[in-house]
Amino acid sequence: MKDVSPLLKLRFLKFTLTTFRTLDLSVAPNLEKLILHYCPNLVEVHFQVTPNLKELLINYCDRLEKLHMPAESPKLISLDLNNVKLRTLHLGVTPNLETLRVRDCANLVELQIPAECLKLVNLDLSNCIQVAELPVEIGRLECLKMLHITGTGISHLPESIFRVKGLLIVGSRRLLESCGFTSEIKTSDNKTFYCYI
């Protein structure tokens, strides 16, 4: 039997250009930061117990279909997914999550954000073309300061979002105008449209 004690102490892990199809992190419970970068064969990642995980970045793992998050990630601060094949993303209890970036995930259709994400400041769903609506719970995220929904299928915003004061919304002109932001719409140098609630 292999000795896994070194993995028990592991705090940082990065994989780049690996060939494995699945990754089970149950043998690294003290992991604080995980980066998966250009892992073309990876289809499934399991988190059994990761009480110390603070940062998760999965970048250009374009076959990744399943990300099994634990029921609770009490220390998770940043979750960044870019160009993966997930259809759903269900966050568990993540009371310290500040940044959630899900970009260029063309297969994503469902995002669940629990109301307990009370420290969430930045939510980026850019170019997730099948995401058609935001969770109703977004109105309870009083710390939210940036919402980036350019390139999504979102055609309206939930009424609850208007309770989030000082929120910067980046989206299409048509979406912002349909939500009644006609006078507030600004244009940045790269032709993206934004407004403040």
Question: How do you describe this structure in short?
Answer:
With 197 residues, the chain is mostly beta strands.
Which SSEs are present, and which pair or pack?
Layout: H1 5-8, E1 12-16, E2 22-24, E3 33-37, E4 44-46, E5 55-59, E6 66-68, E7 78-82, E8 88-90, E9 99-103, E10 110-112, E11 122-124, E12 146-148, E13 168-171, H2 173-178, E14 186-187, E15 193-196
Parallel strand pairs: 1-3, 2-4, 3-5, 4-6, 5-7, 7-9, 8-10, 9-11, 11-12, 12-13
Antiparallel strand pairs: 13-15, 14-15
Protein name: Disease resistance protein (TIR-NBS-LRR class)
In words, what does this structure look like?
The protein is mainly beta and about 200 residues long. It has 2 domains: about 1-85; about 115-195. It contains 2 helices and 15 strands. It has helices at about 5-10, 175-180, and strands spanning about 10-15, 20-25, 35, 45, 55-60, 65-70, 80, 90, 100-105, 110, 120-125, 145-150, 170, 185, 195. The chain has a 10-stranded mixed β-sheet. The protein has a 3-stranded parallel β-sheet with strand order 2-4-6, with no helix packed on it. Strand 14 and strand 15 (about 195) form a beta hairpin. The longest helix has 6 residues, at about 175-180. It is globular, with a radius of gyration of 18 Å. The protein starts with a helix and ends with a strand. The model has no long low-confidence stretch (mean pLDDT about 85).
